[in-house]
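Quick start: what a row looks like.
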Amino acid sequence: MMKSKLGLPTKLLLGFVFVVWGLLIAFSPRVYNIVGQSMSPNLHNGDVMFSVGRCYDINRFDIITFQMGDKCLVKRVIGLPGERVQYQNGMLRIDGFEIEQPFIALGKLSVDYEVNVQLGWDEYFVMGDNRPGSYDSRSFGPIKESQVSAKILFKVKGE
């Protein structure tokens, strides 16, 4: 039987390095560039956003990135797992209660879509802030939790 020549302090240091390295990979900062106007007036073409890896604490109105086919989209979380989302005449209701949307600019509420969907326990309903100009869950349906890439922490003004 071969005995290790590494002492206890060296083994502890190596273990610490591997743990820190794993955390850095899992929670490494990510940078995203906004392309398009689907999130205006809050995010604009050319804005730069920062996130920290995969986030498991997603709340209503958080801005997230997620995979839709081969594209990475940026939208606002409207409905959470298990909720009923209703959207009609620009009015948002969650489980029957009207929800204010202070991040929507006047005149940007979409009145041409009607939504009435019950979300599964691993689904989110997402929408762009520029409701008339956004491709979102009103078109492609709820997204699965496994599609979520990151939660946006802050943005830096672009162009």
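That is the whole record. The chain is about 15% helix and 35% strand. The first helix runs from residue 8 to 26.
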